[in-house]
Task: structure prediction
Amino acid sequence: MNNPALADAAKLVGRILLALMFVLAGWSKITGYAGTQQYMGSAGVPGILLPLVIIVELLGGLMIIVGFKTRLVALVLCAFTIAASLLFHLNWAQPMQQLLFLKNLAVAGGFLLLFAAGPGTYSVDKG
Result:
C-alpha cells in the first residue's frame, strides 16, 4: 500500500475488530461464571481453567486493541482459538458448529496476519 497512514489506520481497526470478540467473551464469562463452568465441563474441559480462559480472552483482547506485545499475544490468541475450536466445535453434524469452527479458523488466520504484519504505528508497540 502506498499510503502508510491508511495502512496503519486499517491495522488499528483490524486489531479492534479481531479483539472485540475476545473482550466481550471474557466479560460474559465473568458475568456468567457458573454457566460457563458447566459448559466447559460438558465438553470435558475442567472448570478450574476458567480463570485462565478469562485472562487470555479479556487481557489478550485488550492488549491487541492497544497494541501491546501484539505479535506475542496474536500467537497466543491464534493457538487459543484453534484449541477452542477443536474442543467445542467439532460436531459438524450441526451446521452451526461447522460455521463456528470455520469462523474461528478465519479469526486464527487474522491473528497470524497480525503477527506477520505487526500492529502498526497506532499502537503501544509502534510497529
Notes: The chain has one domain: 4-117. The two ends are 16 Å apart (CA to CA).
